Amino acid sequence: MRVLIVDDHEVLSASLAVVLDDQPGLTVVGVAGTLAQARRLLATSAPDVLLLDHRLPDGDGVAAIGELRAIRPSVAVVVLTASAADHVLVAAIEAGAAGFVSKTRSLQEVTSAVRAAAAGEAVISPEMLARLLPRLQRGGSTPRGELTEREREVLALLADGLSNAAIAGTLSVSVHTVRNHIANLSAKLGAHSKLEALSIAVRDGLLPDL
């Protein structure tokens, strides 16, 4: 898994780079301190995961998520937060972030978040997810592929904060089957991450209980 770190705090970035690079299967392909540097590295280093500070010297990291994902659509964006307000976190979800990790967490927890994001998991606690989902923007639905009943079940369980393994256990199916359902419903919704799929589902009224 290839990781790009974008944070203007040099001590934190250097520490993260050393720890992540030392983990089996992880390679830090670059460290950027500005959005301008991030754009260049994203285009040339092909990362799987982008650790992105939400405040950078030359712009707002969250506001730039859409632009950065346009450069590399497959990248999983994990936002590094200190004390971000809920509206910032909601904006990150709506922009397609895979999740969040606090700068106050241990380096090992950040490592776990990177691995989870690379595996397609939503990097967010169930408590935070429950708090943020009702705040997502709602609006008229856009014509999309119709979700199957099972895909709606999976979507509802995602909204409850369950992992792929937990969903598999709940539905008595394999994790592979759950991943296929998530891939299918994400494709129908035009989403590139679990959180983005939930954001679109809320906007389009597919989660009426929220």
Automatic annotation (TrEMBL):
Keyword Phosphoprotein applies: yes
Entry keyword set: DNA-binding, Phosphoprotein
Annotated organism of origin: Nocardioides panacis
Protein name (Swiss-Prot/TrEMBL): Response regulator transcription factor
Keyword DNA-binding: yes
GO molecular function: DNA binding
Residues the record lists as 4-aspartylphosphate modifications: D53
SMART domains (alphabetical): HTH_LUXR, REC
One GO BP annotation of this record: phosphorelay signal transduction system
Transmembrane stretches, start-end: none
Domain Response regulatory: 2-118
PROSITE patterns attached to this UniProt entry: HTH_LUXR_1, HTH_LUXR_2, RESPONSE_REGULATORY
PANTHER family: TWO-COMPONENT RESPONSE REGULATOR
All residue ranges annotated as the HTH luxR-type domain in the record: 140-205
InterPro entries in the cross-refs: NreC/VraR/RcsB-like_REC (IPR058245), Sig_transdc_resp-reg_receiver (IPR001789), Tscrpt_reg_LuxR_C (IPR000792), WalR-like (IPR039420)
